[in-house]
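Colleagues,

For the teaching module next term, I've prepared a clean inverse folding example: a structure given as tokens, and then the sequence designed for it. I'd like students to try predicting residues themselves before seeing the answer, so please don't circulate the second half yet.
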């Protein structure tokens, strides 16, 4: 765009030398040098990148202002002044964004209104400034010739832009002032103070020279660009001197650190404390909020020089450093002898992110050694000839040394046990971070993934590496199992997710996904993979056994029932002993009950194995309900319970399903309602519900406890008052389970709608709506 303009208007490239352009030249060179220098920083965070954008706008502004000062023609001055306006319109907005990241208030930018305000205001001022004379005149006839070159002056709406410009600058200053009072470390306060001084220069002086005075018609040499450059120099010095990032302790496995017997302190690059484990807080006798941000020198008041020489300075060249003995001062003013070990924390590019310092309390050791030395000295003074005692003392000293060595070995052993305990799990254990990257994977998980990959994908992978992504697991199990989505749900909602049954390559697995929460913040997730192949095989064998056993029992039970009925009809009346008739009746009822149980087992087996054929056709639900009512009316009359039916939209109550199976479900639900009711009524109702028909069975029985409601619709489960004891007189616990399989097999659903103790229960099921057969339309 600029190249085309230059070709069309070569007059904009006519320049002449003037001393008034020197400040702009210095500003341009300084901003360019700062932009290059800051960009060379190896460790960058989001605030650093926004500061580079800020310097880029200053380079554009200062460079355009320099060419405006050097321009000979009005056309050239107008062109470069227009280009400079792009820079000084973007400067306050970019500065505010940098300030939000620097003061750790980046969440403001996630507020859509903040973002809309910044983007819309910048674009609006830029558009109006480039297309109209609302703020600064941009026509050649309005340019004024001054000692320092052509000057455009201001228009009547310039105060609006001036208020916006100053408002963003003052907001940035206010945020840094608040940040100054919130930070604890001296280095952070120094950096914030330098930022405040640097921002006040252009805000105060530039406001007067380039803002207020031009509004009242007084034109002085513009100083805002020069002062903004001074601000950039001062701010860049603070960034280069004190850094522009902080160490995040969440990147350390805090659960491991909390189990260590040594105090662990994490320092940022300016040697301020960012994290302390529980043992460290106990050793230093501080509360966490008072210790975070405290300079390290506050803990080593009299020994800090030695610590800096032997540890901190050494870490500039070495990865590890150690001091056998020094002293720390606790929050209560006590001095405790400790040994110090420290390591440098670096990022992938080799930049220093901080330091981790281990403090070991050697008070007991020091006390033992002091006591030992005093004893040796006393013995030597009393009798230097008692060599035997001397040998004993030396042995005691060696014993203490062995104890110290043993303690060290125990420490290393406890660290190794953390990983060993994970690897000893029979189930697969995988830990991922918030970026879905694998952090830890035990041997069982590696074996499961390798076996599945070799069987399903015929690949020759021998082992999975922990640094791989969760997508590798998703690829192994097949794209139909969206592991990444389930892990994302677990991380976002901070709740566990269970994948009950995953079938892949002839194997069956169950996966549990649980969030890892640290101080109410999710930092990762754990996946537990359980191989349930053997359990599935056992369950299938059990189902086949039930099916075979039920078939084998059905024939003799039919014979027993038939013979019992034959004896009742032919011989009972001929026998004088009435107990004979009762015994035959008992045989008949027992056979019938056993037959019902066998039928339940057969139905359950067929439904579970998908062998029960559903004769799906349009069914008149109202007619089935009336038939069910007639069949169970005697039982209702026997218990003095009113059995009622209620229909809504009766001419349209046609469902798609198997009429025999639907009737079985109705008899089961209504029979249960009558069985568990002692008074009141049982109501069967049906109505249209969207594109389904919903049937309800409501009773006034004793209801179901909330803790037992989860047992409903499960195999061999009864939702009685006891979770352990079974009421064998009330059936096998298969009725609702079989009803559930039948209804779901017909494309519907069944559920407990409501229930409360002593208030009754309402069971419902839905079936797809069917069109009414033509021969049934009146």
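(Answer key — instructors only)
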């Amino acid at each position: 765009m600029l190249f085309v303009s230059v070709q069309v208007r070569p007059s904009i490239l006519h320049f002449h030398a003037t001393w008034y352009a020197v400040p702009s030249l210095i500003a341009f060179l300084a901003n360019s040098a700062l932009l290059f220098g800051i960009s060379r920083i190896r460790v960058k965070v989001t605030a650093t990148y926004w500061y580079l954008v800020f310097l880029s706008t200053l380079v554009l502004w200062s460079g355009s202002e320099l060419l405006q000062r050097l321009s000979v023609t009005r056309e050239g001055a107008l062109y470069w002044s227009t280009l400079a306006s792009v820079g000084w319109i973007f400067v306050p907005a970019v500065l505010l964004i940098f300030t939000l990241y620097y003061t750790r208030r980046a969440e403001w930018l996630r507020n859509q209104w903040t973002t809309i305000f910044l983007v819309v205001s910048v674009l609006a001022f830029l558009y109006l400034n480039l297309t109209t004379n609302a703020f600064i005149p941009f026509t050649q006839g309005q340019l004024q010739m001054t000692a320092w070159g052509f000057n455009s002056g201001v228009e009547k709406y310039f105060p609006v832009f001036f208020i916006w410009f100053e408002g963003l600058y003052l907001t940035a200053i206010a945020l840094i002032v608040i940040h100054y009072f919130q930070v604890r470390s001296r280095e952070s306060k120094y950096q914030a103070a330098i930022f405040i001084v640097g921002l006040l220069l252009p805000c105060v002086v530039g406001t007067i020279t380039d803002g207020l005075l031009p509004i009242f018609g007084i034109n002085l040499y513009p100083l805002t660009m020069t002062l903004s450059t001074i601000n950039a120099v001062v701010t860049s010095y603070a960034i280069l001197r004190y850094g522009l990032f902080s160490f995040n302790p969440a990147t350390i496995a805090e659960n491991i650190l909390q189990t260590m017997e040594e105090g662990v302190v994490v320092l940022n690059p300016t040697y301020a404390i960012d994290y302390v484990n529980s043992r460290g807080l106990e050793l230093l006798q501080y509360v966490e909020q008072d210790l975070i941000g405290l300079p390290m020198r506050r803990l080593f008041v009299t020994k800090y020089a030695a610590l800096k020489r032997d540890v901190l300075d050494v870490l500039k060249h070495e990865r590890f450093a150690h001091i056998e003995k020094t002293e720390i001062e606790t929050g209560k003013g006590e001095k405790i002898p400790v040994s110090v070990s420290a390591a440098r924390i670096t990022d992938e590019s080799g930049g220093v992110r901080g330091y981790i310092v281990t403090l070991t309390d050697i008070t007991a050791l020091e006390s033992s050694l002091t006591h030992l030395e005093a004893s040796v000295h006393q013995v030597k003074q009393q009798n230097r000839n008692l060599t035997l005692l001397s040998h004993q003392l030396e042995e005691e000293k060696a014993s203490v040394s062995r104890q110290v060595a043993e303690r060290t070995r125990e420490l290393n052993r406890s660290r190794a046990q953390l990983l060993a305990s994970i690897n000893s799990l029979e189930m697969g254990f995988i830990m991922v971070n918030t970026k879905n990257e694998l952090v830890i994977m035990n041997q069982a998980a590696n074996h499961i993934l390798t076996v599945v990959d070799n069987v399903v994908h015929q690949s020759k992978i021998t082992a999975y590496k922990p640094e791989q992504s969760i997508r590798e697991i998703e690829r192994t199990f097949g794209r139909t199992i969206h592991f990444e989505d389930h892990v994302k749900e677990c991380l976002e909602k901070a709740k566990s997710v269970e994948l009950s049954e995953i079938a892949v390559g002839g194997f069956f697995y169950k996966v549990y996904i649980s969030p890892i929460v640290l101080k109410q913040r999710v930092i990762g997730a754990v996946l537990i993979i359980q191989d349930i192949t053997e359990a599935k095989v056992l369950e299938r064998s059990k189902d086949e056994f039930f099916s075979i056993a039920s078939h084998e029992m059905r024939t003799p039970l039919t014979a027993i029932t038939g013979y019992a009925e034959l004896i009742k009809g032919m011989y009972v009346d001929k026998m004088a002993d009435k107990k004979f008739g009762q015994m035959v009746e008992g045989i008949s009822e027992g056979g019938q009950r056993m037959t019902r149980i066998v039928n339940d087992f057969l139905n359950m087996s067929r439904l579970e194995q998908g062998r029960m054929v559903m004769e799906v056709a349009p069914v008149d639900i109202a007619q089935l309900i009336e038939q069910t009512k007639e069949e169970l009316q005697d039982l209702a009359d026997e218990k003095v319970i009113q059995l009622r039916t209620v229909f809504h939209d009766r001419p349209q109550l046609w469902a798609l399903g198997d009429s025999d199976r639907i009737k079985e479900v109705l008899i089961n639900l209504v029979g249960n309602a009558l069985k568990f009711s002692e008074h009141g009524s049982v109501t069967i109702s049906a109505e249209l519900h969207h594109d389904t028909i919903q049937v309800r069975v409501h009773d006034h029985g004793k209801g179901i406890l909330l803790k037992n409601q989860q047992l409903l619709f499960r195999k061999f489960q009864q939702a009685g008052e006891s979770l352990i004891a079974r009421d064998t007189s009330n059936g096998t616990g298969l009725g609702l389970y079989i009803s559930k399989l039948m209804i779901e097999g017909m494309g519907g659903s069944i559920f407990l709608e409501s229930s409360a103790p002593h208030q009754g229960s309402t069971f419902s099921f839905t079936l797809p709506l069917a069109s009414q057969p033509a021969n049934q339309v009146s």
